[in-house]
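Supplementary Note 3. Input sequence used for the single-chain structure prediction.
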Amino acid sequence: MRWVAFSLFLFVSGTVNAQSFPVFEPQFGVATLDQERLFSDSKFGQRFIDEFERQAEELAEENRQIEAALEAEELELTRIRASESEEYFRPLAAAFNEKANRIRAERRQAAQDLVEFRETRQQEFFQQVGPVLLQLMREFRVAVIINRDSVVVSLPNIDLTDAAIQRVDALFAE
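The predicted structure, written as discrete structure tokens, is reproduced below.
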């Protein structure tokens, strides 16, 4: 019973307090931005993406060449196994396995480095376009920009992505 009375007291006192203060009416709105689209659809962002894709293709080509060389070496080991003793073959196979494992680790690291390169370049992109977004916020009287992926439902006219792409393209044109 005391808990109910105490809860009722808090509710009533909260209602009275809320009514005694002026109601806050924000003068600035909220906008959304599709960050991935700004990055991928702007010409400036596309330069970063093109650089990443070029490096990814180089890495893929290196991987294909390494794979072909390892396959050839493995075929040679298979040929040697058929004609040589186990004592002769065993150290060769162990050396090949060690080499293949080292190369796999290097290739995984190269792929991870490429992912980190893309993330770093994307961060650099947003640092450079930050002033453009701030200017859009002032023009559209927006206090907060939320990533569109974080919004469950919104009106379509609060998205600044198209305006941001146009500004970034105009400002960072080659």
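The chain has a mean pLDDT of 85. The longest strand covers residues 142-147.
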